[in-house]
Amino acid sequence: MSNDWNSRTKLVHGGTRRSQYNEVSEALFLTQGFVYDSAEQAEARFIEAGPDEFIYARYGNPTVAMFEDRIAALEGAEDAFACASGMAAVNGALCAMLKAGDHVVAARALFGSCHYILDSILPRYGVEVTFIDGTDLDQWRAAVRAETRLCFFESMSNPTLELIDIKSVSEIAHEVGALVVVDNVFSTPIYSKAISQGADIVTYSATKHMDGQGRVLGGVILGSKELIRGKIEPYMKHTGGALSPFNAWVLLKGLETMDLRVRAQTATAQMLAEALEGHPALSRVLYPGLASHPQHDLANAQMGAGGTVLSFEIKGGRDAAFAFLNALNIIVISNNLGDAKTIATPPAFTTHQRLPDDQKKLLGITPGLIRLSCGLEDPQDLLADIRAALSVEPGE
Q: Would you list the domain boundaries of the chain?
């Protein structure tokens, strides 16, 4: 593969391994193990497997390797390890790097499961975690210290769409020798190049935009070859969080159209945000592509676009939010995002339900907040659906 290829070409051809049949579409190697020609070959492979030598599907697989190579080429990372889900990727990236006595600084605006790992799981094993306002660089400077091993944040937070300055936080972390782990789901690999901006490790839920059609779970951890093969791979292959070959094959096919889908979804999100801003039924519209967004300039510099998701708060709280959701005709109610179908989610009662009320309030996750992941439907149809649903009063 040529390093001179542009993103869309990498997403179609990157990492391709063809069998002896020279197939056009990537082959699905649906096998859990591999046969050796001799006992000596088996011994040699367990000592050190070559780039196209495989042992067991939990360790690696040709279809999975194609997915890893392709997404690494797009991200600009040296290597990648594919995982069973986005949360397997986050858990693997954190647990593989940390031990008792280490200190982590994390942005407090996190997806509920990410928060659970940092707040409930890591402290059980002697890891201290300090939560801060990730948008405040002074808080990062004040929080890091000599024993800080790692800084973790979502480049764009779920669901209030706060952006964190990857370059500046990375500089702060690296000054004390800490690694930077970025959950980059909302920014997408199409817009955000977190590795080149200073991140050491980037994680994605491949379930989202990479599949993008609601079919399979998947995740990926990206970084330097030293970190991925030296730290991440041993942890993941021994704890069992590897991606299945079938899911890897589905994700490979999703990558072929991801650039086209994400750009179309982003254009829809921008149009809807502009059309809804100032609507009398809404108290606020959150979208980084709007000039009113607090990190609009950072979004332009770091991503060049606002992304595929917007959030808005409906006046009237839970009753008004539920009346809106129940009145939708085209848009579906679910908790996924990055899908071909537009999805509405009430985070306070679903994805962030288990957060204590004081933390929800601190993060701006109110009863009336709706997260909208824009799909591939006609934007005017979506706008009409939203406007009609906003006109419905609770109890109607």
A: 7-254, 259-390
Residue with tokens 């050190």, as numbered in its chain = 48
How confident is residue 47, by pLDDT bands cut at 50, 70 and 90? very high
pLDDT at position 21 is: 85
Name the band, by pLDDT with cuts 50, 70 and 90, for residue 1: low
* Cα-only R_g, the chain: 21
Q: What is the CATH number of domain 7-254?
A: 3.40.640.10
CA distance 186 to 156: 6
Show contacts of 229-234: CB within 8 Å, 24+ apart. 229/79, 231/96, 231/97, 232/81, 232/92, 232/93, 232/96, 232/201, 233/81, 234/96
Cα separation of 122 and 124, whole Å?
Answer: 5
Average pLDDT, rounded, for the chain: 95
As a whole number, mean pLDDT of residues 275-299 equals 97
Bridge partner list, 282: 314
Q: Which of 108-112, 281-285, 287-291 has the lowest mean pLDDT?
A: 108-112
Q: Sign (positive/negative) of CA torsion 297, 298, 301, 302?
A: negative
Question: Which token pair is 131?
Answer: 């939560």
CA dist 2 → 6, 7, 14, 73, 119 (Å): 9, 11, 9, 10, 43
Question: Tokens representing 89?
Answer: 């990727």
List the helix and strand counts (H, then E) for the chain. Answer: 15, 12
CA 351 – CA 133 distance, rounded (Å):
20
d(CA 126, CA 121): 10
pLDDT tens sequence across 231-268? 999 999 999 999 999 999 999 999 999 999 999 999 99
CATH number of 259-390: 3.90.1150.10
Quote the pLDDT of residue 112: 84
